[in-house]
Amino acid sequence: MALLNPPQRWSWRGFCIAYAQGPKPQHRDAPQVLLVHGFGANRQHWRHTLPALAAVAQVWAIDLLGFGASSKPPSWLHGEAQRPGAVAYGFDLWAEQLVAFIAEVITPEAPQAPVHLVGNSIGAVVSLTAARLLAKDGQPPAGVVLIDCAQRTLDDKRAALLPAWERASRPLVKQLVRRRWLLAGLFRSLARPAVIRQVLRRAYPSGANVDDALIELLYRPSTDAGALESFRGFVNLFNDHLAPDLLRDLTVLAPSLPVRLLWGEADPWENPDEARQWAQAYGCIRDLVVLPGLGHCPHDEAPEQVNPILMRWIEHSA
What we know:
The chain is α/β, with parallel strands linked by helices. The chain contains 12 helices and 8 strands. It is 40% helix and 14% strand. α3 (122-136) runs parallel beside α9 (243-253). 41% of the residues are buried.
């Protein structure tokens, strides 16, 4: 399948943000859907999703700051001297980006249309964080879909669940990953087409749709100046939002907001058993669908299975 059209551009806080927009729907008040990619990906990772959802909604796919064709400013970590133009990468920053995009780009086109957030991996945590911001402002989204939501097992708040040796090594690891010279070598070793293909073999256990276009859409942004900075910012997120905390807040702030979970049963990184626990624990979760044989990115691995589910959830959002 061909990739999405060349990006449109939006200015946010002095940074250039890239996004894709699907064809305009026939009905002015059709649902609006904002697709949010995971770590290392970009708007093009929705290459099979955006065209399909366009049958029932106005669809947008955005490049988070630091990824894809969006600006990649320097990273700032707690305790460092401030650097001109540097940002503290994290879920609050990216959530604020989504909220501003909805207010400045999506809503002016269709003021009365409901907005749905659909995120994969860390994009799911970003979507939940944005939903909480919107709910606090009294304007919750119409729905949130989490696709293999990142469980963030390396966060400090989950350190007690790690093996003893890993807990003991954390202070040293946390010091090392702050250092650009060390990360530069690691980043260069990982951001290679052959390595990306190897990782995708795990992420897409069926092997479907692991094509040259996918390798290129993930590899090319890694060659941009500044790509190391968002990587540095992300690998230093040892104390940020966890999905259960956000789900708990949403259950209180917006009890009628439907959150739906879609998961690959064979996800090598995000255990679907934890998603099942969330579904039992949080009243805002309306549905959980676990798809056998699929991995971390089922929307791209098996769009023929995922797209009909997403379309049904968007059309029947209550």
